[in-house]
Known about the structure:
By secondary structure, this protein is an alpha/beta fold. Helix content is 24%, strand content 17%.
Amino acid sequence: MEAQKNNKSISVLKETKDDEKRVILMPDQVKLFVQAGYQVYVETGAGNGSGFSDDEYREAGAEIVSTSEAWLASPFVVKFKSPGPHEYHFLHQKMHIGAFFHAEGNPELTKVLCDSGVTAYAFEFFRTTDGFFPMSFADSEIAGKILMPPISPDNYATF
């Protein structure tokens, strides 16, 4: 697979933190991206902890890929929680990554993000014009449930 082959694409990564079972995009949300003309890459097993199989993502139009392919296939990658130390080597200057980072309590992560040159979108700081933080609500108030933040192709520009 060629790295970053489609600018209108998104990669969905599997969570690797202990006891983290959520996935950032459900198959229905993947289908919306596909219908909007995005190529969607989903890391194999990304939805298993939330009850979604690779086949469900494939039926929604995603391409199921390996871990390294998921990190390299698109310039924009999303996951629920921030990358762990074993994933830092995937971060690079041309990458855009969205996640719940909570980096304020993790100086090592903050330094890695800065040093790598990655453009990071901390979902916990997305705010509507009326001052509401809808994605933080989804992460903190409903932790552990299958409710994903309002991620849709309408919310993203082409990178």
